[in-house]
Predict the structure.
Amino acid sequence: MNAENFSPLRYVGDAVEILDQTQLPRTETWLHCDDVEKVAGAIERLSVRGAPAIGVAAAWGLVVGLTSTEGNLSDRFETAWKRLARTRPTAVNLAWALDRGRTVFEAKREQGERAMIDALSAWAEQLQRDDVATNIALARHGAELFGPEDRVLTHCNTGALATAGHGTALGVITTAWQQGRVSSVWVDETRPLLQGARLTTWELDRLEIPYRLIPDSSAGALMASGRVDRIVVGADRIAANGDAANKIGTYTVAVLAHRHNIPFYVAAPLSTVDPMAASGADIPIEERSEDEVRQVFGTAVAPADAPALNLAFDVTPHELIAGIITEAGVLRAPYRESLAAALAGAT
Ligand code: MRU
């Protein structure tokens, strides 16, 4: 596998194949998803995950939905669209991709069904390619922020696995490392589903970037002892004022960074910005099964009926964010203005 050109999903003519991230790092199993239910299930189970990858998977889900559901073409599109829209609530890239898919599909209505189907698959393919190009662009902007030999800390997994390729925050770190600006990476394990321990380490191993895995709870001690120079994380949805929702535990890291005067950056494509959310209070936060907290890979770590709460994301207030790294450059506060200008430039 070429780590640099790796993508966790690929379209193979009648199906989308998805690298099952629930099985990493133990086995590399590709799921053959030839109907919309399989794509939706893969998103819900986190076989494919990370905001940009969810958007691209949903695009391919619409395409396979046209051949795998009942009714006329418009009914099949609607069934697929609604099923995919229900999968995960926080990553706005999902709604962003589904809305764009609908626009592309409807734009060809007068030219007939074949044109509508062809336009949808051409768009999904383009979306996948564009996501990689966007990530490479944002990584270049982000890398310029780093000093020589920085020790950087990251949370969750934001690498190629979380996108169509290259990654967002981890893509920034990869590019900065290639330029000699990173000496090592602190990888938060990221309880409860361990995206850092299972996935970020898997990617860093392949990229041959030095790292050390840490329990989430040791980030504060590392910062206090002067062993963290910079923090970069991803986002699932950024509100118009710059508040950013990301994997649960990100807010804790941001508060600690503020306490220790360490720059805390969010890296995300502009498709992760939701101008309809005025602030973080408008971002829906996914709540997942209590068993994900009570168990680790099916093994109980708490009484089977222990009441638990499993918020999948938290919101970091904009005032804790030193900059938002996008394909349009590194945006600075006041974010309401800089995000609006970047979005206007992108359309
Ligand atoms: O629940 P997940 O694994 O989908 O959460 C992923 C994250 O929180 C990522 O940081 C975010 O989606 C950005 S991925 C480039």
